[in-house]
Amino acid sequence: MTEHEVRPALQAAIRRHLGAPGEIRDLIRLTGGATKRTWSFDAVVGDAALPLILQQTPADRLTAASELGGPRVHGAQDAALLDAAARAGVPAPRVRFALDPEDRLGEGTVTDRVAGETLGKKINTDARFAAVRPGLAARCGAILAAVHRIDPAGLPFLATQTAADQLAIYRGIADACDPPMPAVELGLRWVAEHLPAAPRTTVVHGDFRNGNLIVGDDGVRCVLDWELAHLGDPMLDLGWICVKTWRFGGEPPVGGFGHRDDLFRAYERAGGAAVDPAHVRFWEAFGCIKWALMCMHKGAGPLEAGARRSVEAVAIGRRIEEPLLDFLELITGKAS
Amino acid sequence: MPAIQPDATALLDAAIDYLERELLPDLAGYHRFQCRVTVNVLAQVRRELALAPAQADAERTRLVALLGHPGERDALSRELAARIRAGEIALDDPALLDHLRRSLVEALRNNNPKWLPDPADEPGR
């Protein structure tokens, strides 16, 4: 959907859900999101101009969004999950409303817009975050302990995905691409041979990493992008934020801004279970393979009839070797 | 092709130069990001034109040594993938790991040289 299509639909949706006049100001499509689109805008409701975010997957892209990485949380489910997260003490976006079919904007939510930085590289290098950077890894540990405390009782849509279930999902993505890649086959076999026992099953964010956090000069303000949430092994979240891709050029392993010890100790102090670093390392290694397969899917996965790959999609398709090399360094003991 | 024509690399140089120096500074937000990605994609093509032929030869030579019989690169790579998947090669086989590492490093020389962890892997060294 273009800006000219979104604007009138959005104004009608605001008027219906939040109130008149619903005038839309400063509508900007933000970068990122090949299937899911994110728009920033202010909406006039009564006398107030509300700073808001629209996240939408247009109806014609819903199939494309659901085929990667298993079932996705969206729309009204996303709203319920974010509310549950906030109740557990996770800084999550406040949901104003979930889109419904009458809105003609596809699936999605309208949330409050939280000021701050999401770009991983800026968080890792900008002088304005110098004071908060040393505390970010510990803050992430405490937030993850809260994520893993979210009560799943009201969230029946969350699928259970063990490490073996996830392996099957990513095996499927590899099988849908041709030709097979030797390094990917090595990675998938390594994962199959190293599946850990998971003593706990909790709500898992599924995409908790630098780039999905809003950071301000007071630290982490918000955790974004909950669509890969599921019930599973909580150590997945601690491993994923260490995957080198999410370090954005920063040296330290946690998001490029912090150290594993700070993440693990803060997680334990905040009520998370004791952390076994080798267990987290498995998820970091599997995370490399998962990201490689996401890249493969973007660049070479099946396309719907008539669909074309965006320049962003083909560029991501060319990033597949990055996590595969990181994986080799990790399993051969050369990585940091 | 007559030598008087600008070659593929010259076309890419000109296109990259326009996008990067003239268009990009005038763009903001979504289109600025997309333009930057487009420049990166064209730069990948430029590097690939220079590096790919020698890389393909080297990969085929390594695959022949690893699998122990001759063949075309694509068929040999397919065979290696199938043998890894079938569990016919140990995951810690040094020759296998060495081949995979070299293949990834060579691809990164095209796709993203900045990702290479060892400065000795960077092109031009």
Structural description of this entry:
The complex is a heterodimer of chains A (336) and B (125). With 336 residues, chain A is α+β, with helices and mostly antiparallel strands. Chain A has helices spanning 3-17, 62-66, 76-87, 120-125, 133-147, 163-175, 182-193, 235-240, 260-269, 277-300, 311-317, 321-331, and strands spanning 21-29, 37-45, 48-57, 95-98, 107-112, 202-204, 213-216, 219-223, 230-232. A 5-stranded antiparallel beta sheet of chain A has the order 1-2-3-5-4. Chain A has a two-stranded antiparallel ribbon with strand order 6-9. In chain A, α10 packs antiparallel against α12 (321-331). Chain A starts with a helix and ends in a 5-residue tail after the last helix. In chain B, α1 packs antiparallel against α2 and α2 (29-67) packs across α3 (73-85). Chain B is elongated and about 55 Å long. The two termini of chain B are 32 Å apart. Classes of the chains: A alpha+beta (336), B mainly alpha (125). Chains A and B meet through α7, α11 and α12 of A and α2, α3 and α4 of B.
In short:
The complex is a heterodimer of chains A (336) and B (125). Chain A is an alpha+beta fold and 336 residues long. Chain A contains twelve helices and nine strands.
Write the SSE topology.
The complex is a heterodimer of chains A (336) and B (125).
Chain A: H1 3-17, E1 21-29, E2 37-45, E3 48-57, H2 62-66, H3 76-87, E4 95-98, E5 107-112, H4 120-125, H5 133-147, H6 163-175, H7 182-193, E6 202-204, E7 213-216, E8 219-223, E9 230-232, H8 235-240, H9 260-269, H10 277-300, H11 311-317, H12 321-331
Antiparallel strand pairs in A: 1-2, 2-3, 3-5, 4-5, 6-9, 7-8
Chain B: H1 8-23, H2 29-67, H3 73-85, H4 94-111
Structural class of chain B: mainly alpha
Count of separate structural domains of chain B = 1
Strand content of chain A: 15-25%
Structural class of chain A: alpha+beta
> Major β-sheet of chain B, in short?
none
The tally of domains of chain A stands at 2
Strands of chain B, total number:
0
Number of strands of chain A: 9
Label the overall shape of chain A: globular
Rg on CA atoms of chain A, Å:
20 Å
How many helical stretches of chain A? 12
The level of helicity of chain B is 55-70%
Radius of gyration of chain B: 19 Å
Task: List low-confidence stretches of chain B.
Answer: none
